[in-house]
Design goal:
The chain has 235 residues and is α/β, with parallel strands linked by helices. It has helices spanning 20-31, 61-67, 116-128, 139-149, 151-166, 172-190, 192-195, 199-202, 205-214, 218-233; strands spanning 12-16, 35-40, 48-54, 69-75, 87-91, 108-113, 132-134. The protein binds NADP nicotinamide-adenine-dinucleotide phosphate. NADP nicotinamide-adenine-dinucleotide phosphate binds at residues 16-22, 41-42, 55-58, 60, 63-64, 75-77, 90-91, 94-95.
Amino acid sequence: MTSAFVLAPETTIAVIGAGRLGTVLAGALRAAGFDVRGPLGRTDEAPETDLAILAVPDGAIADAAATANSTKTAHLSGATALDAVDFSIHPLQTFTGTEPPEVFHGIGAAVDGRTDDDTQLARDLARALGMTPFTVDGRATYHAAASFASNFVLTVLDTAEQLATAAGVENPRETLAPLVRQTVDNWQRGGANAALTGPIARGDEATVARQREAADDKALFDALATATRALKDRA
Ligand SMILES: NC(=O)c1ccc[n+]([C@@H]2O[C@H](COP(=O)([O-])OP(=O)(O)OC[C@H]3O[C@@H](n4cnc5c(N)ncnc54)[C@H](OP(=O)(O)O)[C@@H]3O)[C@@H](O)[C@H]2O)c1
């Protein structure tokens, strides 16, 4: 009979992948008191550990899992199935590789496991890093939500920055940031429909047409304007 895997300070954890998340995660696991190896690069031999966390691109998870030398394996991907690992923890945050260990405190983490014990292990590890674990029904749907909340927001903000620069605004990011933050605060409090202001919310299509004329990327403008009209009309 195999005994249940119990997470403890003496648990040895290998972090495989020394990129954006692997670097930050290894530091945070150390700060949480675990015995950590890594982050390990692709030329490092996988050490024998209790747990290997694969912080590699989604497409490299199966290969990294095959060379891991651990009792349990986990990945950090929001969209990838559990075929190659025992469990998954997807921290719902964006990591560039320079964040301090505290970046995990208070954020959510989507967890999943092959067995109930594995899911519990994922929950325990998430909590040990200060995250709040939750489960989702559709991993791809959940991950699409994360991309809309982070990646696509950046695409929109970059367009705003370019237009502000073209209009002669000095320090466009600093100047636009308070507007962005207030918008996010309003959305968090009451949802997008209640937070929506501006010419589309006012039904001022003449102003929308002037904005469209000024915008370089008409396809992006039209797609967002159409979606924003639908948002305004939503009960
Ligand atoms: N960054 C985020 O904001 C974020 C947030 C949540 C979840 N995640 C998840 O975290 C995982 C890693 O993402 P990331 O953004 O940290 O990617 P990343 O910055 O591209 O880093 C991936 C690292 O893995 C290395 N690698 C690739 N194959 C390997 C192998 N077989 N063995 C050892 N190392 C290998 C790469 O090395 P080379 O440079 O040599 O290719 C690179 O250093 C992904 O599953 C992603 O979905 C990321």
